[in-house]
Q: What sequence folds into this?
């Protein structure tokens, strides 16, 4: 039976969800697919390229249309969708965060963010920078949030007692915390532009 | 000769800088220090705790005084210092990003950010959230920046030609990009507060 590119990505996603990013090796993937490692390299020249394709799969919902009409609503919707994509897969945030540097993902998520900032009236060059700012914020937030969720389910969190107000005390709700940062970001764009913003 | 806690952290930092985070294992560290693994566990109950101590070492400069007098200057200075700390060690951004979730670092970096936001006139509870926003932005930015630097020195970057304007095109200067995000952040705080800000 022929091994298709999508089968390889399916297999990689299955290993990711069951064992995590650290166990996603070309050798293990070949074993799970019952093929020789060479069969994988026919589709992907190296692991970096495979991870790029896995990131594409994780980020696929970023291509769907946005419901919100105004730019700040659309940005908020896209940022939440990005966070949801990353949280859907075990180690999803870490994988995309580490893989993004290779720029091997074909996801147009960042460009959609930039295009939405342009709609706010920001020049293209600055909108590109703003899209990076938002992307980095979402990645940083979600890597931490997902790590804590996964540590928690593994019983590895050593949280201080609820009455603690020391350095380890947590703000209770990750979604509220995430939203606060998004509001700062959109407020920053508004303030930077002053009356130029629609 | 007695093995001190600081010797273990020194050894971990040396392995990190020479081989990277993936090769920083308790077994390898014990070998490098010429002790049995048990000698490490006398100082650190598990690898998570060791990584917390390594993060403390990486983040140590965050405790030093700030030169800037106004809150936005101080925030910018602290954010740059955090980025510099992470870039100083190989995989430093990834290590702190992954370790931060365990909340085992004793670094007061995030609290210093929050205290600086309070000086802007923001209520403590919101200032804590703003400090998380800034921390996540710096971590997300620096993980990507450092990954690209390290891929570049390993010859693993496959950048498109300079004339490309497609999805892989890079904004040229990571520091300028970083500063743009910081400006959006401080503008967001100013805008959110309106005339309440000093």
A:
């Amino acid at each position: 039976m022929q091994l298709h590119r999508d089968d390889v990505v399916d297999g990689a996603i299955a290993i990711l969800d069951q064992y995590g990013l650290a166990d996603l090796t070309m050798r293990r993937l070949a074993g799970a697919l019952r093929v020789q490692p060479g069969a994988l390299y026919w589709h992907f020249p190296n692991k970096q390229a495979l991870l790029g394709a896995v990131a594409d799969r994780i980020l696929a919902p970023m291509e769907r249309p946005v419901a919100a009409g105004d730019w700040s609503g659309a940005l908020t919707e896209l940022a939440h969708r990005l966070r949801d994509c990353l949280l859907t897969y075990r180690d999803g945030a870490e994988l995309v965060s580490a893989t993004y540097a290779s720029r091997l993902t074909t996801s147009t998520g960042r460009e959609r963010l930039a295009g939405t900032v342009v709609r706010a009236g920001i020049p293209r060059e600055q909108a590109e920078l703003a899209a990076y700012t938002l992307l980095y914020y979402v990645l940083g937030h979600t890597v931490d949030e997902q790590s804590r969720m996964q540590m928690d389910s593994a019983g590895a969190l050593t949280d201080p007692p609820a009455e603690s107000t020391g350095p380890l005390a947590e703000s209770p709700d990750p979604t509220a915390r995430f939203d606060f940062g998004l509001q700062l970001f959109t407020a920053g764009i508004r303030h930077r532009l002053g009356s130029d913003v629609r």
